[in-house]
TrEMBL record:
It holds the Pfam family GH123_cat. This is DUF4091 domain-containing protein. It comes from the Bacteria. Coiled coil: none annotated. It comes from Victivallis lenta. Residues 233-366 form the Glycoside hydrolase 123-like N-terminal domain. Residues 484-681 form the Glycoside hydrolase 123 catalytic domain.
Amino acid sequence: MTPFNRNIYHWLLYSRGTAGLNYVDEEYGGMDRLPPVAAACKATVNDGSWMVEAALPAAGYDLTGIFRSPGWKISCHRSFNHNQTAKEDGRGPEFSGFAPIPGQFQKPLEFPELKLGGKGTIPVRMTKFSEREFRIAASPAAELRMTVDGGKAVSVPNRNGVFESAVPAGTRTLELLLTDGAEVVFANRWNFPADPAPARRELREKQMATRGLGISAAGSFERIFSDLPYFGDRREFSLEAARNEFENFQLVLFTGRDAVDGITVEASELRSGKGGVIPAAAFRISREGSATALPVGYPTVRGAGDYPDPLFPLAGKLSLKPGEVRPLWISLKVPMEAAPGNYTGSIRVADGSGRTETVAVKLEVYPFAIPKKHSLKTAFSIWETSLRRRFFPDEETMDVAKFTALVDRYAMMLVEHRLTPIIFGVPALLPKRVVDTSGQSFEMQPDGSCEVKAEVYDALNKKYLEAGATGFCTGPYLWHFMTEDHEVPAEWPAVWRAVNRHYAENGMAKHAFAYPVDEPGNGLNDKVRKMTGVIRENAPDLKILVTGVNANFPSRLVDNIDCWVPALHWTNLKRKAEEQAAGREVWQYPCSGPWYPWPNYHLDTDASAWRAVAWVTAKEKFDGILYWATAIFNPDDPFVNNANGVNGDGVLQYPAGDGSPLASIRLKVICDGMEDYEYMVLLKNAVAEAKKQKRSPEAVAEAEELLKLDSVFRTMDDYSRSEDDYRNFRRRAAELIGRLGR
């Protein structure tokens, strides 16, 4: 069953090396309370082709679900290169044909032949595809209908089992539906971007006609590339925010034929008609830098190249050469004590000639606040190993106190952006001196007991909790079962008893979670059961959290899990609902996948995908978000990061030259999504109180309709790419919160 679509079944076929033992995930067939289905597979790999053969018994599947489905969709997901090197034929790492439902095949020419049973039929094979034309081989009796830009479907002639057609010039959306009799055998949708060349030429002409310095405001979703032409003349930006909320926009500086020197940018204070004042210090102005994206196989904004992301402090005066573009990021943090009302102010830009320009800023402050304590549970691991390798390369002489203070700055930046940090989460990758001094150490005593040493670690996590964080990680960690025989270490019962006692006594146990192993996979279910059993028996006050990228997660084959963390695109929603009904939590886990257009935090995708991760959590009723790393940057070049074939994965924070943390544009937009979630919670609470008081039935009905979230987020690849829609949701939510409170 593919995620988020209960009527499509998904079989996973694995191979080792070029050919070898293959199997269907042993638990995957047990989706409907029937025994698991196992099936033997055979793989044949030649120089230019490969084939996997498997007989998949239907006994373990709900056939009524299959027959209700709109059709079958087969997709090949050929693995990317784990070492991020090009393939032998020169191609870069890629995901070839990963196709969640609903979705589109990213590599249509690699759509495999599907042979059903002994019939030897080939329902469909795409032999040519581009935004200009396509050719599909199917049965001579098949019918194909093509829809362009959502218009009327037209038939494509079948010429002895071959469908061939040109795609009209300027097509933005192409849908193909192929049927064979009454059955749908192929259905897919493609989105084609507009040719950027004409628009870029027009922008370049306007930019180069600019005299002196050009300035313009832009929204936070707009990607401003310093190597592409830009022209704008927006001189006013309107914002709305609750107290204790960030609002963001961009200020773009550009030149035409003139060089401009001595540029300064400063914000004024904001004043309301009722005497309210928000100081200029509430604004943070940053210079946008670039990070490099490498070639990948998922859709991107502009392919490989430099993308705006790291945010540097704006220090001193700026100079622009002729034809240069320099975007600045403007963040406004509304003080908790700000009075509600309408405020005005400006961003002032001056150059060395004495010329001054301003962008007016209008702000409406709502009569409520985003709470200091985060409503959405998160766990974002920093992974300090890159910081250590780049800035403290000598393990023997490194200053542990300075290193710990640096890690603390990264952690506090995450808390400020409504994310809970995991610090020193992989101790095996850190020097023992760091773990012993600033992390958690577990010292076995002569009598067989254990003593927990965590004075600095506990103090740091208490600080994060007081600043709004939702929890912290504790206990020993076996990264991918880092023991030779995958067995639970003999000292673990004593260690976990000590950990439980330590945090029960200092009052932190209610915030603590054990994260003992990462992505163990179905092959280690027995070992994981033993591990979680030891923790449950000896540390009953702690929650146990386990991540999983295996296909069927949450699993019925593992016990004692309080927080399941499945990869979003592999979540078994039926099991998710069962676990949540039993009082356990299920978080989502963006880690490499899923790939755009599904929401994730990748560098080279649309900004809406970053903000929408929080909306997935709300829409699909996940209990939290775990992200594997925020600062595991390339130690040799921190601004070129391609982990697991995904650009920017694991890097939401960059290092400055001295190692201090730089926020990213992605981190700012992710924070906006977390604040969206707070609006949802505030509105839900207002609805509950209004119902309790039996008031405002019309407003209650309107709020419940808005809380379906359909105005912004409908499905995994059908959500708004427009920042205005997210802002309109907040405006509407704020208005309803006010009405429900009266």
